Structures are given as C-alpha cells and as structure tokens.
Amino acid sequence: MIDKKFKIANKIFKSRLIVGTGKYKSFSECAKAIKTSGADIVTVAVRRVNISNKNKARLMDYIDPKKITYLPNTAGCFTAEDAIRTLRLAREIGGWKLVKLEVLGDKRNLFPEMIETLRSTELLTKEGFKVMVYCNDDPLMSKRLENAGAVAIMPLAAPIGSGLGIQNKVNIKIIRQQTKLPLIIDAGIGQASDASIAMELGCDGVLINTAIAKAKNPIQMADAMRLAVISGRKSFLSGRINPNLFGSASTTNEGII
Amino acid sequence: MNIKNKIKITVNGKQMQIIPKFLLRDLITKLKMPLNKIAIELNKKIIDKKRISKIKLKKGDKIEIVHFIGGG
Asked: Which of A120, A159, A243, B54 has the CA that lies 20 to 30 A from A237?
C-alpha cells in the first residue's frame, strides 16, 4: 500500500519522526542522533546568548537549518504573551513561521495550560505563524485548536520527559477520528514500542526528545525509534486482524493423520 | 574617556557600560555575535537586524540577544 505523504502546513516531510534537540551530552551527539533518526524536523528552543563566553558552541554550527527544518518551541512559557514574544524572536532569527507552541500550566507535571494555549494559537495564527500545538489528549480542546487555526494537533502521551508511554489510547483514537490535521504524539514516549503504538493508533507522526537523548545509547535508540515509527505506520496501514477471545489455528485440520 | 560619561545598559540581564553614541551594531560587534544566528530585542521591541547601524544606545536600555539552543 502506498502511504500518503506526511504533510504539515502544505510542506511534505520524509520522516514521520520529529526529534527534540535538548538534553544530549553534546551537540555532536545530538547531531549524530538526528542523522540516525532520519528526522527532517527538529525542535529547538530560544534562549539568551551567553555573552560572557563568546566562543561557546552553538546548535546552528552542528545542525544546519538549511538541511533540517528547525521547529522553534516555546518551552518554559506560561502565558500567551511569553509564547508570542518567544516565537516572534524565533522568526526574527531566520524567518521561521512553522512553530511548536507549548504553554505550560504547572512546573511539576508540565501539563499544557489549555486556555492560554488556545488563545496563543489564535493570536499566532493571525500573525501568520503555522502553529503545531502541544496539547492534552482532550478531543474537545483539540477541536477548538483546529478551529483556531492550528496546523497540527500534538497531544501528550504522558507528561513531558516521563517515558510513561501512551496513557489514554481511547482519547488519541477519538482525536484521530475527528481531525484531518496531522496528529502527532508529543511527549511521554519511553521506548520504541510506544512510538509504534502511537503510529498504530493512526497518528501521523511522533515527536521524541528525552527517550532518545537520555537513553544509555542515544544513537542506537534514535535508530530504534526510526524503525519503530516506520513499523508502526506500516502495521496501521496494513489493517490489523480483529482481536478474538478464542484461538484460531494457523494450520488446517484437513489431511490430519 | 571619563568614567562619568559612560552609559549603563543591561544586556541579557547583565549590566554593561558603554561610551556615548555607541550603536547597537557596535555592541553586536563587541560581543562577536553572528547576526544570522541571533535575534535582538531592545526594550522589549524586536529590532530589524538591518537597522542596527542606525540605533544609538541610551542610558537604561535593556537589550536581549537570543539564539537557538537544544530543546524538545
């Protein structure tokens, strides 16, 4: 079966795996993991330049934004105003309009503040940004984000960085049923099988940072995630068998001795 | 230059002293910042990087210079 293209805001991407660039031991390890993952979109954050150490390495020296799509995020923002300020700055660095919005509501569980998230989505969309939105796995809120102009719905599987895997498959399936927008699981993936499950639920993609960056072998985990996303997608497209309570022999009884 | 003539500004939360008529362009050059990898905010307003040679810094100016770092 030929798969449809993975398209976000009218741009086609090869890989359905989006990778975060935080928490790696070094920029060089991060660059290797990205290359191995096959990702063509990476999330990045906007922060102050260290003015005391002018020679400090920069992310852009290791990951070329001409070759990989940078997806600036709003990590650490708790209000719509903070998020908009951050993304305007990101746009100014180099014209980025495709952005990842995350407006948090709680420092401990890192859950999204959905009222501010919705308000930010509306405001950013009006400014011409293409907003991929980190959100909770709430079908009603997802619908409102879509109506507000989001270009991708990105529900959490579990709290950011928790590695707990997909906690609410039912909600993800409901969101899948109701939206034609790209549906991308963002946050909470722990291992390759979680990524496969996300794809088997019908998601269009998966965004992973901690599960790769903090694995004992991040490069190998990046490869595992690459394969898991491909595998899960193929499994979804192939049409699984109906689950059955009882056994069904694989070998015919015909000709039995 | 008499120290009394120096102007205090804040760059990325840190106080700095500059001479009068110091341009935003002079500050970026002094800090060796690659223009294509940063964004600049002056008193919470984003500055068009093409205009930095025309902006004279004043006492109490607050400048933020940001770039991309790793993030999820």
From this structure: A159
